[in-house]
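fwd from M.: "can u put these together and see what the complex looks like"

so here's what she sent:
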Amino acid sequence: MIRNMTCEKVRSLLSAYIDSELDYQELRQVELHLLDCTYCQEECRSLRATKDLLGMLESPQLPREFWPELKERINSHSVSEFYRRLLVRVLVPACALLALAILPIALSSNTGASKGLTEAKTDLVEPYIREYVISELDRPFSDKTSLGFVATAQAVTMYSSDLLEPYGHPTPHKGVTPSGQTGRKTQIDAFKRVMFLSPK
Amino acid sequence: MLNTQALAGAQYRESNIEAFEELVRTYDQKLYRVALRLTGNADEAKDLAQEALFRAYRSFDKFKIGTSFEKWLFRIASNLYIDKLRKHGKYRFESLDEPIATKDGYIEKTLPDWTGNPEEIVEQNELSEKIQAALQSLPINYRMAVVLYDLEGFSYEEISGILDCSIGTVRSRIHRGRRLLRKKLAPYVYQETEVGVG
């Protein structure tokens, strides 16, 4: 059984009725109401006329310069994006890897140790730390600065054990061990440099 | 068809502006028309449409393959326009029908009454200007719903996706928008009704 709608309710549905966007029940109720209500019929006609008026608006043409301007903007964005990606994806990781490779060599030469470069590398940075740092460098959003600190801190820790050995402390690993007073002074200087206590 | 085009676009957009242009060429006119009806100004419309397309290009990797590219693009444009209005303090939610509260009570808003001089009904370009001015006076939510439905032929469901609201809200906005337009364009509306009846 279809219940009669009030004029107010019908009027609220008239735009959707005109647009054929009512469900079946609503449609039946509105149609039934409109059969008898001249006021709502007039309301419906005026809303339809309003909708038709909008259809009389002229269709504007796209300005001629629209695409040339947009393409120029996209092009300049693409160039800057290319350099940004180059910096983030290539240069930063490359610099970090380079720093990682140079760090053990630099530390080794500062100690004045007689060990070869290859040996020094393996002594000063644990392989698993290096693997971790290298793998993290390739990942997006990895913190390159933080990774640099991890590598540096690890190297410093290992190096400091060498520093302590001449004073009689036990050495936790087999590292670079310079001999005599000159060797110890060199160690201290190098350690200060690593800890940024001395500029050179 | 739209989805297929979007899918193809997603594959080659990365390094090919021409391909992106080819994909969105289907919508550029429509986008510009909507922008013009929303802003009421050719320069602003061009800026809005270009900005929407530029953002679509820039964030194309966020577009979900298999969904409607058109809806996605128009959503970007409508959000952009609302943001712009908010930024410039032109955004308003209130209905033109609502009375204004004052310390002496409520007063009704007055709208220009054109019913007294229907003889002034004039040529097409002038009518367009009147309609555009009436559209411009609508609250933005009503204007967007009316423009998308009456001028661009989106369905209620599509509009609810673009404007991120329920179909009931779309229905209500279109209806209220039309009622306000009817009030503003009364001489034209009732002339047309009489012609229709006669």
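replying to her w this: Residues 2-87 of chain B form a domain with the Rna Polymerase Sigma Factor; Chain: A fold (CATH 1.10.1740.10).
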